[in-house]
Amino acid sequence: MSIPEETEPLRLVVVSAGTSDPSSTRLLADRTAERTAALAASHRKTVTISVIELREISADISAALVTELVTPKLRKAAGILGEADGIIAATPVYKAGPSGLFTSFFHVLDNDLLIGKPVVLAATAGTARHSLVADDQMRPLFAYLRTMTAPTSLFAAPEDWSDPALNGRVDRAALELVLLMESGFARKIRDESWQSYQHSYGSAGGAEVAIDLDTDLMRLATGG
Amino acid sequence: MTAQRGYAGNGERATRIVGLVGNPRAESRTHGLSRSLIRALGRVITGSVTSEVDLTSLAPRVLDPSAEVVSAALEQVQSADILVVASPTYKAAYSGLLKAFLDRFGNRPLVGTAAVPVLLGGAPDHLLAVDVHFTPLLLELGALVPARGLFVLESDVAGFDEFAANWAETHAHLLLAASRAGVSPPVTA
Questions:
Q1: Which domains are delineated in chain A?
Q2: Which chain B residues contact residue A97 at CB under 8 A?
Q3: Looking at this predicted complex, what is its ipTM?
Q4: Which of B9, B34, B88, B150 might form a disulfide with B118, Cβ 3.0–4.6 angstroms?
Q5: Is B128 touching A (CB cutoff 8 A)?
Q6: Count of CB contacts below 8 A, A vs B?
Q7: Domain B16-181 sits in CATH 3.30.1330.40
Q8: H helix intervals, B45-126
Q9: Is-contact A124 A93, C-beta < 8 A?
Q10: Cβ-proximal residues to A165 (8 Å cutoff; 6+ apart), any chain
Q11: pLDDT at A136 over 60
């Protein structure tokens, strides 16, 4: 019997708000992405990994906040997320919350870009006292964005990096992500129930309403 | 016109009232309400001076750590005895721009400052966001937050001045007492 081959690889996108290179935030996200790819392989699925480093597009995020100008770099990042089958969203903790860069990025994205998409939340901090930032503060933001957020959130303080328990949690989150991605949940929501979600005009590049914004006339009309 | 009570400020020096506006858009209703509140507080607290930091003008530089003009704004905020921090409601919480600005502070910069978080919303749905998300941020910065945070509907813009006058009348003494206390919530661990 031949093994059926998966035609489409699963597209995994890492969003990292780490400010240094390398950063512990990116390290946690990468470790999770690698384990997700490995676990997907054991499910006979291939995974492609794209990385959005917010540090590299901070000026684009600022511009979008102030002027609503969507630069090509920001448009590209939003496009990659729009095509994602799964997302790992990782931020350092500042002032007991996700960084302003991280939240600003998700503030400038359209409200309905990520509906139903599987997301693993990850945060890194200098102290264990911020362990609940992912669940207390990031999870509500992603609830607003209506993502399918994995039950296991990841957090790493300095002492966690040498603790095998972190890898255990990473594996747990990675498997949740694989199962959610391969279920096709987000795609099925789009296909079967898209109209039942609240949308605003222009909020999903035309997918939010039954008109095609991607024509010359509509591009002109929407200033795109 | 309500009869105004006067509250004595700190005596030897002027009580500094600062409005911090976290809306990236110029002349926003967030800015309008912040201005109403600092003016109203300025009227009822004798010997006070008011100023504001509007992140609109700083926005492109907030994420650039080398921008000195942002450092000046941070110092102005840190110098406040009473700080009004106003933000629009973005995706169910305060704005990322405001957070990016506050992220640039060192550890517990607002010890000795009494702060009031103000969230403007388009609909009442996010009323609790101010106390669930916004107040804890100010506490983490070391500020005392002696009153419940304000959640105000943008559509009430015509009543901002009256609202601010009434609120200042009833809450100025709490803010003054907290700023004089010079203590802040304990940090555990």
A1: 10-195 (3.40.50.360)
A2: 99, 133, 137, 140
A3: 0.87
A4: B150
A5: no
A6: 93
A7: no
A8: 55-62, 68-78, 96-102
A9: yes
A10: none
A11: yes
